[in-house]
Amino acid sequence: MRAKILLKKVWKWTKRIFIFLFFFHLFCILLFKWADPPITMTQLVSWVSGDGLKRDYVGWKKISYNAKLSVIASEDQVFPDHNGFDWKSIKKAMAYNKRKPNRIHGASTISQQVAKNVFLWQGRGWIRKGLEAYFTFMIELIWGKKRILEVYLNVIEMGKGIYGIEAASQSYFNKPAASLTRAEAATIASCLPNPKKYTVKPLSSYVASRRQTLLQQMNNLEGDPDIQEIISEPVTKKKK
Predict the structure, then answer these.
(1) pLDDT tens for each residue of 58-87
(2) What is the DSSP letter of 31?
(3) Torsions phi, psi of 55, nearest 5?
(4) What gap in Å lies between CA 95 and CA 110, rounded to an integer?
(5) CATH 1.10.3810.10 fits 53-231, yes or no
(6) Where are the domains positioned within the chain?
(7) How many CB atoms lie within 10 A of CB 16?
(8) Model's pTM, two decimal places?
(9) Mean pLDDT of 22-46
(10) Of 10, 17, 92, 229, which residue is 20 to 30 A from 170 by alpha carbon distance?
(11) Strand partners of residue 54
């Protein structure tokens, strides 16, 4: 009898906790549509582990057009077209990982990377992957592509202890992110697969080589109207 009462209490509190967490996360998703995340788990770990923490969030208009185009070319060339998940790339990655389990390939979109970095922790467990899918769906639904890209450019790791395009631009080129040239933006974006291994300063051979490929891909993608709709600033009508 006591066991049944205890189980009912445990189940009651478990439901309350889940309901609280659901509404708390929903509140955070809505809040971060406009407000910048105070700190991410990845940034906190970087600071605690001694890698340092350089970051400086900037708004959409203070980020170079070139930076926006470069990260799409580098990380997610179908960013405007998917709903958060690039199923073709996921299938290819799963097939590759099955053939070569010791050399894991990922297929995360920009949206998935934002969901992971803002709301979760680094890792490959099934629970984290499930939560990542949930948050990816929600930010696609609530934030929209421009806000997702803006947050990505502010929170993603771009070097050891360097987070966001503004901190990266200042660290590598001593200039604000708004002033990044095409080549500079491509250089930073080239390190994104593994920013601690593929360094911008000193310039690694991988980044130097990939930059040339990325510049060509930027040229190829730039004319896509769907990409232009995301990265271009709206035209401001001049007063007569």
Answers:
(1) 999 999 999 999 999 999 999 999 998 887
(2) H
(3) -160, 155
(4) 21
(5) yes
(6) 53-231
(7) 10
(8) 0.86
(9) 88
(10) 229
(11) 162
